[in-house]
Amino acid sequence: MIALTGDSLTFKELQRILYNGEKVEIDQTCLETIHQSRRAVETIVQEGRTVYGINTGFGKFSDVRIDVENVEELQRNLILSHACGVGPLFSERVTKAMTLLRANALVKGYSGVRLVVIEKLLEFVNLEIYPCIPQQGSLGASGDLAPLAHLALALMGEGDVIYKGQRMSTASCFQLLEIVPLTLQAKEGLALINGTQAMTAAGAVAYMEAERLAFQAEWIAALTMEGLNGIIDAFDEDIHIARGYPEQIETAARIRAHLDGSQLITRQGEIRVQDAYSLRCIPQVHGATWQTLKYVKEKLLIEMNAATDNPLIFDEGNKVISGGNFHGQPIALAMDFLSIAVAELGNISERRTERLVNPQLNDLPPFLSASPGLQSGAMIMQYVAAALVSENKTLAHPASVDSIPSSANQEDHVSMGTIGARHALQVIANVRQVYAIEAICAMQAVEYRGFEKMAQATQSLYQEARLIVPSIVKDRAFYVDIEKMNSWLDDVDIEHIEQKKPLA
């Protein structure tokens, strides 16, 4: 059981909740702060003080005063009117992360919600009830309004949810599980939707997938090194220490470990003096992606534990401030950076695949074909990789450089961070496919070179991967192989592949 404090959620804990189904609760030390914050809201309502979001309209309507008898209707109307997202639904994993992170923000005690609101969010997390939340419709400022409104709609017993793989009305799910719908009171609707949890949830899942893929990219690159008789000298520790980037040094060390004892790698001058950049510069390029991942992780960890709604309540209600913590710019920039960095992993992988299949660049059978000419072998697999990396070049165009005014120009600068996070997820999915293709081609190449000459680490991985995709002895519908390898990379969690420290 993981206890939420609002300040201390880690990626390791998030991984356990999202991937291992660990349950969540509210840390008991937070209860008094939550209650104090709620009492402050109730006092404001009773005293008739005018405070944004409690007894006023929203956005351009912030100057419209709401009578006390209409405060609950105000919150309900807010959710109903804002639940207008479109497009495909967020994945169950992202939706669960969104629900969890919204609860974690409210636990901090700055938002003025009742304890029951947070408990309802965690009930959804623990029972694995997934509100149907469309991906499109957030500008990434004023909070992820549309996506989070769909989340809040489900808490109210409305809209649709997915439970045990089945889409159903929330009312039916609540009846099945004997759950009581939430009736929102003053400020609670605004507190649920004024936040960055859609972009942060998508970003956190993207980061975890990107980290795993980056480790997998290294062993696949090592396999390609063997398939092409790559020169190991370029990975010598002294070269990388001379430049000084820790991530570059660490990448080179992991590649050396993967290739330790290999009889398929060469020394400079044995076959050729230098390798092409896609082999020789693996530590520099992959290492730069690791630098980016470090930056992205740092920003996400802050945002995962941040108070991002508006207004925020301090000093037991004596200070209530309208600000802009809902603005997603920090995450928007991080997501754009993540897309670019992962896209580059795909770019260099596709160039290695080209070197594996192009007979003008190696001494292997053309296109790794079992019968060149009669059979095309891996020719079109490289086409697919090329198409994917080109698609990523459009997806990696920064979303954060765009803005468009909304709410009658009251909200005149927005982050587009949720678009950036969605693009990052798609880029990562594409790059995983690119590495599935490189892995298939690299395995075929080392098979031609001599399986028995491989390093112990790569040979072990080769054997496991061959259980997924068999040797190419004749042409077949290779989309099946790509799908199988991609699914394996998406699911596999092998310590000797990743060689990583636990997520912090």
Automatic annotation (TrEMBL):
Top-level division of the source organism's lineage: Bacteria
Enzyme Commission code(s) on record: 4.3.1.3
Record GO terms (molecular function): histidine ammonia-lyase activity
Localization per record: Cytoplasm
Record-linked Pfam families: Lyase_aromatic
Predominant localisation class: cytoplasm
Catalytic activity: L-histidine = trans-urocanate + NH4(+)
Classification via SUPFAM superfamilies: L-aspartase-like
Entry keywords, A to Z: Cytoplasm, Histidine metabolism, Lyase
Post-translational events: Contains an active site 4-methylidene-imidazol-5-one (MIO), which is formed autocatalytically by cyclization and dehydration of residues Ala-Ser-Gly.
Cross-link annotation 5-imidazolinone (Ala-Gly), location: 141-143
Name recorded for this polypeptide: Histidine ammonia-lyase
Organism: Shouchella xiaoxiensis
